[in-house]
Structures are given as C-alpha cells and as structure tokens.
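hiii, so i know i said id send this last week but things got crazy w the move. better late than never?? heres the sequnce for the chain we talked about at the cafe, plus the structure i predicted for it. fair warning i was half asleep when i ran it
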Amino acid sequence: MITPVVLMFMFVIIDFGIGLNHRVVVTNDAREGARYAATGKSISQIKQQVQDQSEGLVKDGTATNCGSSGTEECVQVKFYDINANGQVDPGEGVFVKIVYSYKILTPMPAFVPGIPTKYEMNACTEMRLEQVSTDALAAANRITTPLC
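okay and structure toks below
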C-alpha cells in the first residue's frame, strides 16, 4: 500500500527537478540570445545562437508560429522602437522570447487523472542595443510596445 505513494512522490520529485532545470536553461538561453542580439547580429544568427545554447531543448529556433497554437518551441526576436520614429537606433531595445513545451517524463499523468502531459514555458529578455543590425530596419521586425 505504501509503495504506490512512495513511487508517486518520487515521480513528482523527478519531474519537478527536470522541469525546473529546463526552465533555468530556457531562461538563460533567452538572456544569451538577447545579449548576442544587442551586439548587432542578424536575426538568423541570433536564432541559431539560441538553438546552439539551448542544450537541445529548442530544436527549431527558426519556427515562426509560436506557442500552443503553433509549434512547441520557437524563438522570436523583435526590435523595440521606443520613440516610434520608424527606425531602431542604438540604445533602444531588442527582445528575445523563447516558447518551450516541457513534456512530463514520468508516467504520473496515467495514474492521476487531470494532470497535463506538458507545460508551456516562456522566457523573454530585453537588452539595450549597442549596434543595430540590418534586420532591425525591416518593419516586420520592429515593435512599438514591449514584447514581454
């Protein structure tokens, strides 16, 4: 009778630990991507850097349809035109947002009804631009309200 309770407790501990580790990696990855973006890199270079630094969690950094209605993991890069003058200047911001879906690894959802099998994790970071890339000049990559 006590074995199922102990196993359930172990499953919770294991999944919580792995999920927390993935959250830390994704959050750090967004910060690394924003730092890389602040140095004037192109959006494709930023997304590749984020994917390379993600320890395999973000498998397709180039996906454009983010979140639960789209792909399970993706990277968004947007340049923040603070003064809304139609261009992005040094000193303005860049946002890097990562959407990652953590799938529960243990068989816990099979034993306890109502527990979801995956959780969406979002990490978003803003950094001030030191250099402006040519991608920042494209209207599709500019925003006038903060992304996160």
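btw Residues 2-38 form the longest helix (37 residues). thought thatd interest u
miss u guys!!
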